[in-house]
Specification:
This protein is an all-alpha fold. It contains 17 helices and no strands.
Length: about 425
């Protein structure tokens, strides 16, 4: 491999890492470590599957399907493509991710420096800036983003290495068994929403790679995959380090500490007050940059989807208002409300990614993929109804009877059986191919 290609792979890999490395994601690994205790390694394994490996699968899905997310959805059905893309955009946009960036900014950044500030005031300022900068053609956001990511990463590396060398409390409590910790990590990984974002980010990265001259299909795929591996490796290292810091934070689950409080406690215990203030500033500004990027992406997508009937400016305003309203409820509330929704959409998207990546070359018919996704959807809805308390006993009994349910993947075996059966039938009948 020539030197230029190696350099390009690392440049794109770090760019991809920066896209996924949202400041809001920092609050998930530490609480996972705290709740896992001595079983923190098992929790990392579960977390890595849904937040890192699944994200890599999402990128791979786009790579093997074409150049963007529409190419993925069209393998199933054009309407399915629009529906899934819209759901992903709403999830990483005004319903979950954008409000969470504002809430994280308040709880980690604003409140730690200006403790008297009200959430509503912080939200109004945050989304006023988001609105203005989302409409501006200025390169301020790009400059801030390029500066903040390496600075924030440097602080985190120092935080993690210092915490490993001199942990706040090296005595690990046995909070959960390995199986329980794995399941907890698996579920907590949903909240990063990196898988949903991967389908959008992959298109951007592929376009950048083609812009560097890698237009031939084989070299485009290889360069994208290697760049993604670099990004995922760094994500895993950062997430793993933060989980360990949570496990050695000195807190126990009896302390009922919130995610943002735990992050600030760890930072203060390792970096001291000044280091914590600097971290808070970087997290707040990085969240603002993320909010602007997501607001722009969501508004642009729905403006194009409506054939400009809904203007970009109007959509930016709508996104900011909805996100601002939801953000004042706080990080913990947003996360608790988001989980049932993510528990449905995540298995569907994972299912789609798994079958397209591993069987896309060998199974050309559409019906097996439709069957696998439909079965997964039904099982995910059963789980949702149980979580919402609707016929809870019946729903839980159904789930318990399905293999692999205790590992949070009850959809896997039934969807595989449905996929294989429809593949055999489709092959005999010669039904519609992708």
């Amino acid at each position: 491999m020539d030197k230029k290609r190696v350099v390009d792979i690392f440049i794109v890999g770090f760019a991809l890492f920066a896209m996924f490395f949202g400041a809001g994601n920092l609050i998930f690994p530490p609480i996972l470590g705290l709740e896992s205790g001595a079983s923190w390694m098992a929790s990392i394994s579960g977390f890595a599957i849904t937040s890192v490996f699944a994200t890599f699968l999402g990128i791979m899905t786009v790579v093997v399907s074409g150049d963007n997310f529409s190419d993925v959805g069209n393998r199933i059905h054009p309407i399915f493509s629009v529906v899934i893309a819209s759901i992903c955009m709403l999830s990483i946009g005004p319903l979950i991710a954008i409000p969470r960036t504002a809430a994280t900014t308040f709880e980690v950044g604003v409140q730690s420096i200006f403790p008297q500030t009200k959430p509503l005031v912080s939200s109004i300022v945050f989304f006023t800036l988001t609105f203005i900068l989302s409409l501006s053609s200025s390169k301020v956001v790009n400059i801030i983003g390029k500066f903040l990511t390496p600075v924030l990463l440097t602080i985190l590396v120092i935080l993690i290495i210092s915490g490993i060398i001199s942990p706040i409390d090296p005595n690990l409590n046995l909070e959960l068994t390995n199986t329980e910790a794995f399941v907890l990590g698996f579920r907590e990984g949903y909240q990063t929403m990196d898988l949903l974002a991967s389908f959008i980010m992959a298109g951007i990265i592929i376009a950048a790679i083609k812009g560097k001259g890698y237009t031939e299909e084989k070299e485009k795929k290889k360069t994208t995959i290697l760049s993604a591996l670099i990004a995922m490796t760094f994500l895993l290292l950062i997430y793993g380090g933060l989980v360990y810091l949570g496990a050695t934070s000195g807190y126990t689950t009896d302390d009922h500490v919130s995610r943002t409080e735990l992050l600030l406690h760890i930072s203060n215990g390792i970096l001291g007050p000044n280091g914590t203030i600097f971290l808070a500033l970087c997290v707040g500004l990085a969240c603002l940059t993320t909010s602007i990027a997501l607001t722009s992406a969501v508004s642009d997508y729905f403006s194009k989807l409506s054939n400009q009937i809904l203007s970009y400016r109007l959509l930016v305003a709508i996104v900011c208002v909805i996100s601002g309203y939801l953000s004042v409820h706080g990080v913990e509330t947003i996360i608790s409300v988001a989980f049932p929704f993510l528990a449905v959409i995540y298995p569907i998207v994972v299912c789609m990614a798994v079958y397209i990546v591993f069987f896309g070359k060998f199974v050309p018919h559409k019906s097996p993929y439709v069957a696998a996704i439909s079965i997964t959807f039904v099982i995910a809805v059963i789980g949702l109804l149980g979580n919402l308390g609707i016929a809870e006993t019946t729903m839980n009994q159904i789930l318990i009877s399905i293999p692999l349910n205790k590992y949070e993947i009850p959809w896997l075996l039934p969807s595989f059986i449905g996929f294989v059966l429809l593949a055999v039938i489709a092959n005999k009948k010669g039904s519609q191919t992708i």
